[in-house]
Specification:
Blueprint: H1 12-22, E1 25-29, E2 37-46, E3 51-56, E4 61-63, E5 76-77, E6 88-89, E7 91-95, E8 106-108, E9 112-115, H2 123-140, E10 149-152, H3 162-166, E11 174-175, H4 176-179, E12 185-193, E13 202-203, E14 211-212, H5 220-234, E15 246-250, H6 261-272, E16 275-279, H7 286-293, E17 298-302, E18 318-323, H8 334-339, E19 347-352, E20 359-360, H9 377-385, H10 398-404, E21 407-408, H11 412-422, E22 444-453, E23 457-465, E24 478-486, E25 493-497, E26 501-504, E27 513-522, E28 526-527, E29 534-537
Parallel strand pairs: 1-4, 3-7, 8-12, 9-10, 9-12, 10-11, 15-16, 15-17, 17-18, 18-19
Antiparallel strand pairs: 1-2, 2-3, 2-12, 5-6, 13-14, 20-21, 22-23, 23-26, 24-25, 24-27, 27-28, 27-29
The structure holds uridine-5'-diphosphate.
Amino acid sequence: QSQELSQVQIDYHAALQALVEDGTRMVCTGRMHTDRICRFESLCYSTEAEEFVYFHSNSSVMLPNLGSRRFQPALLDLSSVEDHNTQYFNFVELPAAALKFMPKPVFVPDVALIANRFNPDNLMHVFHDDLLPIYYTMQQFSDLDLEARLFFMEGWSEGVHFDLYKLLSNKQPLLREQLKTLGRLLCFTKSYVGLSKITTWYQYGFVQPQGPKANILVSGNEIRQFTKFMMQRLNVSLEESSSEEYIVVFSRTINRLILNEAELILALAQEFQMKTITVSLEEHSFSDIVRLISNASMLVSMHGAQLVMSLFLPRGATVVELFPYAINPEHYTPYKTLATLPGMDLQYIAWQNTDREDTVTYPDRPWDQGGIAHLDKAEQERIIKSTEVPRHLCCRNPEWLFRAYQDTKVNIPSLVHVIRQTVKSKPGPKKQKWSGSLYPGKVRDAKCQASVQGTSEAKLAVSWQIPWNLKYLKVREVKYEVWIQEQGENTYMPYILSHQNHTFSENIKPFTIYLVWIRCIFNKNLLGPFADVLLCST
Ligand code: UDP
């Protein structure tokens, strides 16, 4: 089976000698445990102790060398979920001489990426926390190619979506449990530990209520490069855009149901004059779902992890997210944030059930399916009366779970009305031209010339040249912003100008030093950098 490691032949004695003589070498990127990824040579793992081991020897390197700060709280996060205390990585240290008394090491010849999956049974978590971060961590380090091997250390079994993880490299990923079968002391010849967080867009509410990450660094372009890779690995080809347009309803079959799904499908088909189909994770293969979604004009679904599949929608498509009664769409925005990332080019619409008559609750189910029977009577009554779940932390808020697992009869006229406010004619992939957004460079050769008229009036003539990259671009509108600031003052006078020179006379005093800041703006909202400040004395 492909669990076998010895696909690359290594000289065992040479490897052992190198480990004893050279020890472990580690060099990391990142300043804090939350943004650190480490590259190791000869990092070992004791499957008995379930600990990573760093061997000190003549040539060992440990950068950063944090001393005991390595435990405050950890060297790094093993998952892409930030600073979660169940996801920390560290190692124990030993002198290489201790190897004499230890089990014979088994060497892992593949370049390894060692990380934790966060919640491999939930599709949103699979894509957002694992697949995208693994893919872009592999892009960051060139020896993490398709021949690299993934090691998942979180301790879960494969999970229902393991086939997706297998797409990321040609080698079978290995789980923590399986390492025991390989040996008592494993030594990774070359390994990377940790995941890049650069593609994540959502925080799940462990320390503050859930919401978009504060500083999102990913755009639709990188998301779509990833989905292109996944589709190639899944053997799903993008069909010709000439084929028929259609709407996909992504349904859940176990809970959080749409109770009038047949009526909904008929209504959508009628309203938009398009074929409307349903898919579900229970009834369709993953490839089929990707194939269908990647050509759809609109995706309609209950709030839930399956909506992460809007990753695969074509540009110009519409996402319609349905929220059960008492759940404020603004408070749960993982899919809205995704759909509205710059360059995703999707339209996002939220609909909420506001009618108590149209909801079905399940107070007697187990707590993790939204039951509230375990709570005291007063609390149960408060929850049942409440019209909106207040903001809360992850992950066991009973009021949230109670409302999240309601079934909903969708009010069709209300839904159609909400969609029609955004989708005026036919929804779907418009052959829109590339709306790529390139920013201007600095303006060049900025100059100023002052002239004084009498004791109270002065003028400042300022001129500059276009940014260097403009001559290679077709830009609809080019404007310049000029700020005039009197030296020593906090405030400035801003101007938006269309030409490359201007003479300022308003509020310009004689015998004063002005700082002049100039930048170029493309198409109203693409702001370039300011050129070096100009000092102008009147
Ligand atoms: N799921 C599903 N059908 C269902 C209920 C759940 O396919 O009827 C999937 C869901 O998309 C997710 C996983 O099962 O991948 C866990 O669902 P859960 O309700 O726990 O999470 P949520 O969707 O609220 O994130």
